[in-house]
Amino acid sequence: xxxxxxxxxQIYLTRREVEALDRAAKATGRLRSHLIREAxxxxxxxxxxxxxVERALRETAGRWRRRREDGAAFVERLRRGRxxxxxxxxx
Length: 91
Fold this sequence. Notes:
This protein has a domain at 65-91. Helices cover 69% and strands 0% of the residues. The chain has helices spanning 15-28, 32-60, 71-90.
C-alpha cells in the first residue's frame, strides 16, 4: 500500500486551461487534479532529474578518448577477468 501525503492548494485557471484539462480528463479517464500533478511532475521534477543526467554526461564526455581499446574490447576484457576469477573461486 502506498501512502501519499498531499497538501491542498487552490489555483486559478483560465477557461481555456480548464477546457483543456476537461478534454484531457475525458480522453484519459483521469481527474483534473491528477493531470495537474502529472504536469508538475513532468515540468519540474523529471526535468531536474534529466538535467542531472545531462550534467553527468557533459562532465564525463571525452574521458574515453585516450584509451587504446574500444568499448567492446574493454567489456570483453572485463568479462574474461571476472569469469576467470569466478572459475578460480569454484575450484
